Every structure is written in structure tokens, then in C-alpha cells.
Amino acid sequence: MTKTDLDRRGFLEGALRATAGACLLGSGLGALLPRPAASALAAPLRPPGALAEADFLAACLRCGLCVRACPYQTLRLAAGEPNTIPGTPIFTARTIPCEMCEDLPCVTACPSGALDPALTDITKAKMGVAVLVDQENCLNWQGLRCDVCYRVCPQLDQAIRLDERHNARTGKHAFFLPTVHADACTGCGKCEHSCVLEHAAIKVLPLATARGAMGAHYRLGWDEKSKNGDAPLVDAPLTLPIRQPEGRKGFVP
Amino acid sequence: MTAAPVSALPLCPPRPRLLIARRLVQALCLGLFLSGPWAGLWITKGTLASSLTLGVLPLTDPLIALQSLLAHHRLSATATLGAGIVTLFYALLRGRAFCSWVCPINPLTDAAAALRRKLGWQERVLLLPRSVRLWILAAILGLSAASGTLVWELINPITMLHRDLVFPGIWLLGWPALVPLLVFLVDLLGGARLWCGHLCPVGAFYGLLGRWSLLQIRTPHRDRCDQCRACYRVCPEPHVLSPALKGATRGHPPVIRAADCTLCGRCIDVCAPQVFTIAPRFAALPHPRKD
């Protein structure tokens, strides 16, 4: 056997072993890959301006500069808790909510654009959306006047409003039902943080978990009408002839 | 050239001067990050993945930036600039200088290798070609592009250890704290430098960066070599030594050319006849090249 043969065999063996190793490593890493759909329910909250989760995981360098910039120690780096990607920034609203700094220090500190620099107005942030998940334990839903979530909301009377409803139990009082309006809610978590119950009845959930979506083809008649300057959308009610089998006495309107 | 008589060799007892310098630089690099959280003196914020020094100097790990680009994210100007600065620095200096002078994993794998020497565990348990790290590098870049996430950052022991140190407390919480320990055990049980020399794709990446770098280890006095093999025992990439040490008859210049050399300088420290020096690339060679 010549030297060349030996070298070629050595090279082939080496390449084969390396490929096998790389495949093994690849499948191991594949098992670690995040699966947003399965974990959306318990997904932690991201800082303001965070891109949609899939884009965020491509953009976040796991450097922690946003955590350093946060003046309230709201943000922290995930350490490998369930449903988190190690090294990415998260916060827990019930522990420390976002104080909605007007100068967005976390977004300014982000070197990669994972926190979108296009966000310049903190009231436009969408870190999640508050949902009154437990009406059966919410004090306001029992007819009491707690109102704490309503009062602490930085978007007072916009993100959470109190809807008045008759209290049939006493017959003479009103319910003031906290109602979240998602278009104004930033997901800061002040409501969840302040809920007086043992376990918060109002919780901030990731948008993907909390929000439904109408079909793109849905049109609400009243919206379309107001867009149309309150003019009727169809010219006039149509009057159609009533057709019935011959010789039958039918319903005449 | 006539060999000098043995008695005239400038023998000097091995002194670990470069090893001490290296440990100091490693401590300094970590200290820049730690002075803020520990003493309130903020010099460098962030981690090795991406950082900001004194509010003006952005630095970003180019491999992490590359994964992000491949995962279809257009990086902001700050991270792009930071990655550019780091790339240029290591391309000019020497790519793998990161491994021996900055990387926080290096003291762990050095310790594993030293423990193996002390225990007399000479033979490697796991035999792997050194090209495996290049395959792993290719795999993580491909997987980053395919999955749209920074694949290596899911297990990268370098950034995990650095985060554990710089953000104190988070290591108590999760499995990432165990990854650097795993690297130590891999090296201790599998073979010296198994991680840094065979598996780590970060080192492979920096190696590719440093092909044309300016600093080199040279062997101007290779005629003094007394074959004691002390350098081979301590070198993290011993395959780079032979051409420079023993290639005189084959016309190989007295220079360690291989990009795998991490410029750790252990060979300079341990060599009693002082065969090795560190020199800039364009300095004149002591011997004329035999072509």
C-alpha cells in the first residue's frame, strides 16, 4: 500500500467521523431549539420594543445591555427557567413591572435592533396585553369597589376602563367592571403587580396568547357605515316580489 | 551553521512570565465587566457577546453577529460596528489570541490539562481530528440560517460562563451554569484540550480570522533545541510546533505559521535553551530562507 492510499483512507475516515459528529451535534442542538408555538402560553414578557418572538430570537445577541440600562431592575436575563431562552431579557410583571420610562433606556442600549429603535413613544409599546383572567375572584366583579388596577394604570381610562353594570344581587348597586382595551394597553404589568388578591386576577399575557383575530374578510357594518360618513352602505332596502307555488294561499306581509 | 557547544547554551530556568501576563490580561478583561456590578464603577457594560466600554466603544462577538445575520436579522449600526472592530483587531493581532488571552473558558481547560499532567493521564480517551471544530462551525452557521435563531448561543459555554460571572445570581437558577463545568470534565476525562483544540467552533472561527495576522511565534534558535519536548507538553495546539522546530532541513522558515497557534507563549516560558521568541510578521527572519 502506498503512502497516498494511507493518506486518502485517513482523510476519508476523518471526514466521515467529523460528519457523524457534526450530525450528532446538529440533532442535539435541534432538540434545544425554541418552539414558540408550544411554549406561547407561559412565555415570559419581553422588554418594550421587542420584535415578534421569532424575529427577536434571531436578533437578540444575549448581551444584557438592556438589563444594565433598566433603572428599576425590571429586566433580567433568563437563566434557563422553563420556557425561556438562556441569556435573553425577560421580566415578571407580578414581581417588578415596567415603569414605562419616557426615554426608553433599554431600547436605546440595545446594540442589535432586537429592541426596535423605531419605538420612540413608550405608550405605543406592546410588551403584552392585560387580561382579566379570573372574574370569579376579581373584587370589582363581586360588586366591591377595589379599582386598584384601574387606578395604577399609566394609561388611565384608556387601557383599563370601568364598565358600569346593574348589580342584580342587591338590586340597588352597580358593578364597575375593569375592562381592558388592548389598543391602549402597553403590557407594562402595573395592574398585575398591584392586584390586591393573593394571586392576581388580572395578568399580562403575550399578545400571541391573549389576542384573537377576526378573519381578514370580516367587516363590521357599523364601522363601515361610519367610515362612509354615516351614509347607508346600500342605497335603499330592496323590495322583492313574493313568489309562491301557483294556487296556494300563502303569507302576505 | 555550526552548533554551539552544549556548555555555551544560554540555559535559563523556566519562568512562567507569559503565563502570568496572560492570567493578568484575562483577569483585567473580566475585571472591566465586574467593576460595575461589584463596585459601582462602570467601565464595560454587557457581556462578551456585545458590550459598551465607557459609553463610547461598542464591541460585538463577530461569530454571534454572523449567526444573527444568517438568521435573517439586519443588525443595527452599533452591533455591526462592534463586530467590525473586533474582527479587525483579531485579524491584525492574531485570531486565536482571543482563546488564550481573553476567553474565560481558557483557565478551566488549562486547569484540566494541568490536572491531567499531575495525575499522569497522558493518553487521550477520545480521538478526534482537529477538523471537527470546523464541521461544528459549519453546522451551527447552517442551523442558524435554517432555524432563524442564534443556534450556538443556546449552549455556548464562553458566553454562558461570562454571563454567570457578570450577572451574579443567575447561575444559581439554571442549567447554563453547568455547561462550563461540563467543558472542564470533557477535557479532564476525554483528553487535554479536547474542547479548545478539537470542538470549539468559536476558536475555529477566530483561527480563520487570524490567517494573515501580524504577531507570530518564531524559532530563531531552533538549532539550540535539545529535544526535551517541554513545549509539546504544554502547547494547546502542539501540531503547530513541528514545522517551525524541525523543518530546517525541509526549508521551513523558523516561524509558527499555523493559524491554530493561540499566541499563549507557554513554549517561550518552558523552553530552557530559549528557542522561541514572539515577533511581528514583517520583522526580518534571522536565517535566510532555503528554497
Give a verbal description of the structure.
The complex is a heterodimer of chains A (253) and B (291). Chain A is α+β, with helices and mostly antiparallel strands and 253 residues long. Chain A has nine helices and six strands. Chain A has a two-stranded antiparallel ribbon. In chain A, strands 3-6 form a two-stranded antiparallel sheet. Chain A has a two-stranded antiparallel ribbon with strand order 4-5. Chain A is extended, with a radius of gyration of 29 Å. With 291 residues, chain B is mainly alpha-helical. Chain B is built from 13 helices and five strands. In chain B, the strands form two sheets. A three-stranded antiparallel β-sheet of chain B has the order 1-2-3. Chain B has a two-stranded antiparallel ribbon with strand order 4-5. In chain B, strand 2 (50-53) and strand 3 form a beta hairpin. Chain B starts with 16 loop residues before the first helix and ends in an 11-residue tail after the last strand. Mean pLDDT of chain B is 86; it is low at 1-8. At the A-B interface, helix 1, helix 3, helix 4 and strand 1 of A face strand 1, strand 2, helix 2, helix 3 and helix 6 of B.
Provide mean pLDDT of chain B, rounded.
Answer: 86
Q: Main sheet of chain A?
A: 2 strands, antiparallel
What's the total helix number of chain B? 13
Q: Give the SSE string of chain B.
A: HEEEHHHHHHHHHEHHHE
In spatial order, strands of the major sheet of chain B run 1-2-3
Tell me the helix content of chain A: 25-40%
Greatest interface: A-B, 43 and 55 residues
Rg result of chain A: 29 Å
Strand content of chain A: 5-15%
Per DSSP, the total helix count of chain A is 9
**Mean pLDDT across all amino acids of chain A:** 85
Gross morphology of chain B: globular
- Which oligomerization state do the chains in this entry correspond to? heterodimer
Helix content of chain B: 40-55%
* Overall geometry of chain A: extended
- Classify the secondary structure makeup of chain B into a structural class: mainly alpha
